Amino acid sequence: xxxxxxxxxxPHVTGISRLMSFLSWHECSPTFCPAIPVPTNPxxxxxPATIKPMRVRLGDxxxxxxxxxxxxxxxxxxxxxxxxxxxLAREVTADRVKHHFGGLAQGKVERFELPNLGALNFLLxxxxxxxxxxxxxxxxxxxxxxxxxxxxxxxxxx
Length: 158
Hints:
Elements: H1 15-20, E1 53-57, E2 62-69, E3 72-79, H2 85-91, H3 94-101, E4 109-114, E5 119-124, H4 145-149, E6 153-157
Antiparallel strand pairs: 1-6, 2-3, 3-5, 4-5
């Protein structure tokens, strides 16, 4: 079936990995997972001159999930409505996420686009004080990072 996701499960996967393996895409090529283009008008704005942008909290148009892998915090940002994904892709950049968390994200921040899911995934390296078993932080597993990101303000069309 062309253009449809094909879910697969490895016979070697067990436990929670087996439970969550339905999230893996069997086929994901550049034509199957296209990047969302960001159009611009002559003055450099991503909106037509007739549309005035407004500032909203990320939490008004998306929800998040977060957790840890060692000293790296993983944050998934999912658009509440598929029409808002281009706004997320344009506004929620790795640099803005790193700036939002300030000194908490000591290492680099990576962003991965998942347009088929209307989502972005961020890895904040060196963000958990060493990780769950060695960190003295209250949130050594990064569970509150997603909620904290929802307070970031972004611009969307009115």
